[in-house]
Write a structure and sequence with these properties.
Low-confidence stretches: none
Distance between the termini: 57 Å
Order of helices and strands: HHEEHEEEEHEEEEEHEHEEHEEEEH
Number of strands: 18
Strand order of the largest sheet: 4-3-5-6-7-8-9-10
Strand content: 25-35%
Structural class: alpha+beta
Largest sheet: 8 strands, mixed
Number of helices: 8
Mean pLDDT: 88
Helix content: 25-40%
């Protein structure tokens, strides 16, 4: 066999070290943060697989700061991430969708560069009751030591993210990562306990006649979104909606199409969290050649947050498909 034609074996860890080598000034701190996230994902993946056997399905009978009923595995996944990241010297602040306030792990003293990590520990957790796909979403920001308090340090627009990614726990455990220079995909090989790189420099198709949205809320969507859905259905678009953002966006990243979460009467500012969901997913989609907007001409990554739990409408996916949606939000399209 010709060795030059044999694909090289690249793990997530070696990929991170390879990327680090392109930045002579890098201290390796970010690598440690990403390592903690990858370990957390292995633990959460194991918990998800054994959820029914260990009787950790269903709710805990309380609500999180978002006013949503917490699932048992929401709490478990949140604790796993907090404990794993808490052991990494490079992490100054962590913020979770499940916690009202960010957690300050280390103060501003010390010479090494520190990071802030924001995450949605288990997106779509209610899907677990029916063995549906769920995921973890994360965003990494450089810690602003000049900021007045933890929240102020976190309130940075998405364009300032150092890295972003998600983990999909489905038929396999998939880790998708961007460090701001393209998007790469890894799959966990349980036999050796390592994430193996299976795709490098992912590019989202520019068009695909498919959309993902919760049409159960259609009657309360703004008129422009309803016009778009009429237009799309007249042109034989297919509808794909998994009930978990990670699953929906992963499909669109690989196959193309558009993901939408419009404002509704119940959630006039949108339902998705800007910092924990919209920003990291938008960075991934843009790095893969797609678009992510919250309104016509308004790029999600340029929104200046005012609260760490801020919500936003979101339209992201293939560039041409996002443009179709935006045209209908401005005026009727025949």
């Amino acid at each position: 066999m010709n060795s030059s034609s044999t694909p090289s074996i690249v793990t997530l860890q070696s990929h991170i070290l390879e990327q680090q080598s392109h930045f002579p000034e890098a201290s390796g701190t970010l690598s440690w943060v990403l390592s903690a996230l990858s370990i957390s994902a292995k633990v959460i993946a194991d918990k998800v697989r054994h959820a029914r056997l260990e009787n950790v399905l269903g709710s805990v009978g309380s609500e999180n700061v978002q006013g949503e009923v917490q699932q048992k595995l929401d709490v478990i996944a949140n604790e796993v991430l907090l404990r794993t990241l808490g052991g990494r010297e490079g992490v100054a602040i962590v913020a979770s969708e499940e916690n009202e306030e960010p957690v300050i792990l280390r103060d501003n003293k010390g010479g090494d560069r520190r990071y802030c990590v924001l995450f949605d520990p288990l997106d779509g957790s209610s899907n677990l009751d029916v063995c549906g796909g769920v995921g973890t979403i994360f965003s990494i920001l450089a810690h602003d030591r000049r900021a007045d308090g933890a929240q102020a340090s976190l309130l940075q627009p998405g364009v300032r993210q150092v890295a972003a990614g998600y983990v999909l726990y489905g038929s396999s455990t998939v880790f998708v990562l961007t460090l701001g220079k393209g998007v790469d995909m890894f799959v966990l090989d349980p036999g050796i306990g390592a994430y193996m790189r299976v795709e490098q420099g992912l590019r989202i198709p520019t068009q695909c006649k498919s959309y993902s949205v919760n049409e159960g809320n259609r009657k309360s969507f703004p008129t422009g979104f309803q016009r778009y859905l009429d237009w799309a259905q007249e042109r034989d678009y297919s509808s794909r909606y998994a009930g978990a953002m990670v699953g929906d966006v992963h499909r669109i990243l690989l196959k193309g199409g558009v993901f939408m979460y419009p404002p509704t009467r119940k959630a006039p500012n949108g339902k998705l969290r800007l910092m924990y969901e919209a920003n990291p997913m938008s960075m991934i989609i843009e790095q893969a050649g797609g678009k992510a907007l919250c309104a016509p001409g308004e790029r999600v990554l340029e929104v200046r947050p005012t609260d760490i739990h801020q919500r936003t409408p979101l339209v992201l996916g293939s560039a041409e498909e996002v443009d179709h949606v935006m045209r209908h939000l401005v005026e009727p399209v025949r």
